[in-house]
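Dear support,

I submitted the protein below through the web form. The confirmation email said the job was done, but the results page showed an empty box. After a refresh the structure appeared. I'm attaching both so you can tell me whether what I see now is the final result or a partial one.
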Amino acid sequence: MRTAHTCARPRRKPCNWCGRWWCPAAARSTTWPPWASRPSASPWWSRAPTRRFHHRRPPGATARCNCSACATLTPRKGHALLLQALASLTQLPWVLHLVGSAERDPGTAARLQALATPLGERVVWHGELPGPALRAHYLAADVFVLPSLYEGYGMVIAEAIAHGLPVVTTDGGALAHTLPPGAGLQVPAGDVAALQAALERVLADAGLRERLGAGAREAAAALPTWPQQAARYAAVLEAMA
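What the results page shows now:
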């Protein structure tokens, strides 16, 4: 169970988190963010830099910025918008690493792969990764991107923050409240031009990436842990009994 959401209060409008409608009777509602697993007792930012995908580059070539996007290949996740935005930024040194299952919507996955064809080796498809490989992927990234049109929370944002990554995301759904201030850049959902501008800023400015990464590391210290949120969840269930 990766999210802890209890919607026990009948309400006159949809719940902000789960979208469900409830009748207007008096009860109680409790909502809170999901928990996050932190990388380790010795996170990457306290160690010597090792966070790199291995690319073969000609001697003297500019190091590419590794952009990570972790989401299933479905329309709601906004991959098409991301590819369109990056297609106009080929003057910058970047590689996009896409992590997510292509099996839930094979048609969308095929269309995305066709859309990415002109970008060649700049787009790397990793598929769905198990836990240790996903953690290694976060540790190797320079920037995390989630261009979703809508999210009920956006757990991968918390995971990216837990790994100290600067984030570029949208304000779709609960994402408007998920990204901590100072940890990334946020744009209107579905706005390719705004997404392109934000990506250009973060890809072209190593200093900005470092500042946003510092903001992410600061926010990571405040993320709740599994035991903390499990205890809160249990307390709510006990109160409802």
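Response: this is the final, complete result; the empty box was a page-load delay. Helices lie at 79-87, 106-116, 131-140, 155-162, 175-178, 192-204, 206-220, 226-240.
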